[in-house]
Amino acid sequence: MSVQIPDDSDFSSFKDQCLNLDGWTSRYNKGGVTVWCRDEDSKTVQKIKMKIVCKDVKAETVYDVLHDTSYRKKWDTNMIDTYDIARLTVNADVGYYSWKSPYPLKNRDFVTMRSWLPLGNDYLIINYSVKHPQHPPKKDYVRAVSLLTGYLIQSNGANCSTLYYLTQVDPRGSLPKWVVNRVSQFVAPKAMRKIYKAAVKYPEWKRKHDPGLKPWMFPEQNTLPSIAASELTLQRADSLENIDESGLSEEKTRHSDDDES
């Protein structure tokens, strides 16, 4: 399956999915965060959409936070590791991301092709999973599949913005129902608030850490090795290990310190 770099119509379609509520069910609406869910044909693959209004934060700042992997290590406490692998075009690259699952579930990781587009008052970032020949699945992780994941940031004036996050991921495993519920009721809202808090603190942090370095805005700063789309293939879920974790009970879970609100 060949890899296609998103074009304007793909970004437009993603924006429409973020803004259109037809077929979506609200599962959480509290403290400025809304979470909607949409069950697709497959019961293991859930589509989730979130929205948060970021008062006193510019849209461009939120966009920078979501791109800046150096800063991500400061605020994303569920992340185990992340790094950029190679660039495809001036607005597309390949990267790796791994995160902690609640115990006793296995940790998950992704290799994704990410593409981005600033468009007037909108900023968009979307990704989906790909296979990179030098980054195969690791034995200590379950390689999950992003069918479509991304962000839409809309400017609401000089110092206010709205962030949408939409994700459709195959976790490669039969997960217990409590995990799915926990994601929409706890993990997702917490993640959105964490991005908002990170965006508030970002300008001060960035002033002390390579303030002029923003390769996602200035392609000439990008030092990643180049890769052709033909060297990548689409990551299909059915080619990966599928594990059954549906019998794991919530009582056995061990939460990290960060898990409590």
Give short descriptive properties of this protein:
261 residues; alpha+beta; Alpha-D-Glucose-1,6-Bisphosphate, Chain A, domain 4; eleven-stranded mixed beta sheet; 36% strand; flagellum
Layout of helices and strands:
Blueprint: H1 8-19, E1 25-30, E2 33-39, E3 46-55, H2 59-67, H3 69-75, E4 79-89, E5 92-99, E6 108-119, E7 122-131, E8 142-143, E9 145-155, E10 160-170, E11 173-174, H4 177-207, E12 233-234, E13 243-244
Parallel strand pairs: 6-8, 11-13
Antiparallel strand pairs: 1-2, 2-3, 3-10, 4-5, 5-6, 6-7, 7-9, 7-12, 9-10
Helix pairs in contact: 2-4
Protein name: START domain-containing protein 10
GO molecular function: lipid binding
Domain START: 22-204
Shape: globular
**Percentage of residues in helical conformation:** 10-25%
Question: Alpha-carbon distance between the termini?
Answer: 42 Å
Q: Please count the beta strands (DSSP E, at least 2 residues each).
A: 13
Poorly predicted residue ranges: 252-261
Question: What name goes with the CATH superfamily?
Answer: START domain
User: How do the helices and strands follow one another from N- to C-terminus?
Assistant: HEEEHHEEEEEEEEHEE
User: How many helices does DSSP assign?
Assistant: 4
Taking the sheet with the most strands, its summary is: 11 strands, mixed
SSE class: alpha+beta
| Overall pLDDT score | 87
